[in-house]
Predict the structure.
Amino acid sequence: MVEQKLMGLNGDEAVAYATKQVNPDIVAAYPITPQTIIVERFSEYFADREVDTEFVAVESEHSAMSSCVGASAAGARAFTATAANGLALMWEIVYIASSLRLPIVMAVVNRALSGPINIHNDHSDTMGARDSGWIQIYCENAQEVYDASIAAWRIAEHLKVQLPVMVCLDGFTLSHTMENVMTLPDDAVQKFVGERPFIEVEGHMGKGELRLNPEMPLTMGPLDLQDFYYEHKIHQVDAMEQALKYMKNVDAEWAKVSGRSYKYVEPYLMEDAEVALIGMGSMMGTVRHMVDELRAEGVKAGMIKLRLFRPFPVDAIKKAVGDIPVLGVIEKCISFGAPASPLMEELMTVYYHDKEKPMIANYVVGLGGRDVSPDMIREAYKSMAKIKKTGKVDKLSTYIGVRGD
Amino acid sequence: MSKERTWQELPKGAVSYRPSMEYKTGDWGVDAPKIDLDKCVKCNMCHFYCPEGCIHVEEDGTPVPDLEYCKGCGICAKECPVKAIEMVRK
């Protein structure tokens, strides 16, 4: 473990500071609330010559992601950051980045999608991008944001993975809230991320590294029709499976350097729990607080924080859930017209064929930044206790904290 | 579809492992040009207009469409000043 320095950083600053230490080749970004601090801080590092990065002040998020795709294809380390509508605007290029297997790292400061316009936190932006082929890590606090912003490069560039990574942090709750963050020295971060490695591919001129190189020309992103597109999509399926296999090695290496170890899924007091919530992001801190309160009252409550959403860590989730009778899925997202919200649907899917499985109920909270209070979490646990008592789930989805029944 | 590589055999990142010349696109077309060489004045307009560049010109000026690449767009027939090209079903 290396010696570390305690800093006061908000979530956005934690991203910017970690990215400064990584010193990527290019940062192409457009400011959008609540991500703006990331770009502002980084542009200061650039102005002060604290990084060797090419800072591209683009005119939109579509251009930001396009620049990252071009730079990453040329072999550079490319970083960008966005939120909500910015992510929506870069949409088509988001898919191109993953299908071309470009290990771009993007911080997404989770914010409600318009409209009506709202700048505060929920998960509707990145949940919408769940099928885009990007790895998605959700952070609970600024420390996790710092750590993930460094580890993400090694995950993305892992020779078996080669996929872009979204580091997701809750808008304002994390992005604008100052916390204690333990930071590594620059050289330790540099040593950890090393140089970007490349996989070998067979191009039309022979074998070479997967990057644009005049000495060894490659065609990247050509027209891909009925006869090849499907196979290339299976490549992405395989890459996600590989990511699930190899991400834990990167996490373990980071634990060795930083002393902080992360799991895909982090259970809390689950051994004897009878009711538990599973969810992602900063609200899981409030859930942990409520679990402690409920335990003090004699309720056998537990919780599972899901850190990794893509790839979906099925085995780790099932191991953490164990044989609990009732599982509540807490989400800051609605999939309009769907039977339930995304995380709920995926959990139902992975449990459908199991004989032994928990009763599962969906609790939607905090849309548009509405505060997720301890009382709301308590309401979810109360509802789960009722499900346990009656033995049935009356309502698949409950909207907690909304006015009106 | 001809016998192609499996996904495991294909290079990652959807990189093309062969030049476009080896990717025959002639079967995309419904029609193909049929050139009446009695009418043809060897002006080579068809050669210049062909968006695929698949109408070759022989030394004496005779145009020869390469049907392995011709997508049957019919531009050559449209542009031929002496109406020597007719589009026929492939």
User: Anything to note?
Assistant: Residues 200 and 209 of chain A are 4 Å apart (CA to CA). Chain A has a mean pLDDT of 97. The domain at 265-399 of chain A is CATH 3.40.50.920 (Rossmann fold).
